[in-house]
């Protein structure tokens, strides 16, 4: 027992020495020197140690990537590959995390860690969604990855988290449409704003953005003089979100024009209203 502790201590010290010999641009190369003298398990354990104790998770990734190089097709290489994905994600090297996760999925699609690899792949997109104003391509990629987790691994421990994040990412896309729609509305481009708010009502109706989208439709249609559409938007808002402050605002605006919140005319909103009453929407 004592002998094994000494052996482990010596191994850790030897591997740690590889880190201390390098600095700056030579750090990565120094870490890789002479790693072939150690077993895959020893290198793996050093990588785990770095992940747990270092402030630079990228340092740990070097050990895991070397296992993949030195001991390909081994069980340790498989384990190291999923740890590369995790370590790169922790280091916010998202592209590298995606690459490692995808390689794992390609090589071991039926492995018990495949669900986690897919989850990390989705997270590498999701965690880059930092504000509404960014390019929404990342959001679409996150939604696609999260949907894969939900549909292919519904019984995994990651499914529930994927569902929650999917809903948030979906709301994020709706928020982007609202941001653009509000801009057009403020600039007096009412028809353009209607197109954005319509997308929210028709395609993102389960998100938290829908009540405001209906209010802004009331405002835009009133400005355009399309009173039937404004009243119908108000009716949908009142039917589904009567306690919302957005409905109270819409009700005041309609009443101020001598109008009521009721379905009138024949438009896309009329169809939405009928669907709502029949219980097929919201």
Automatic annotation (TrEMBL):
Entries under SUPFAM superfamilies matching the protein: TPR-like (SSF48452)
PROSITE patterns in the cross-refs: PROKAR_LIPOPROTEIN
Keyword tags: Cell outer membrane, Lipoprotein, Membrane, Palmitate, Signal
Record lineage: Bacteria, Pseudomonadati, Pseudomonadota, Alphaproteobacteria, Rhodobacterales
Gene Ontology cellular component annotations, sorted alphabetically: cell outer membrane
Position of the signal peptide: none
Record-annotated Outer membrane lipoprotein BamD-like domain positions: 39-233
UniProt subunit comment: Part of the Bam complex.
Gene3D superfamilies, per the entry: Tetratricopeptide repeat domain (1.25.40.10)
Name this protein carries in UniProt: Outer membrane protein assembly factor BamD
Primary site of residence: membrane
Gene responsible for this protein: bamD
Function according to Swiss-Prot or TrEMBL: Part of the outer membrane protein assembly complex, which is involved in assembly and insertion of beta-barrel proteins into the outer membrane.
Pfam family, one: YfiO
Family: Belongs to the BamD family.
Location(s) in or outside the cell: Cell outer membrane
GO biological process: Gram-negative-bacterium-type cell outer membrane assembly; protein insertion into membrane
Protein topology in the membrane: Lipid-anchor
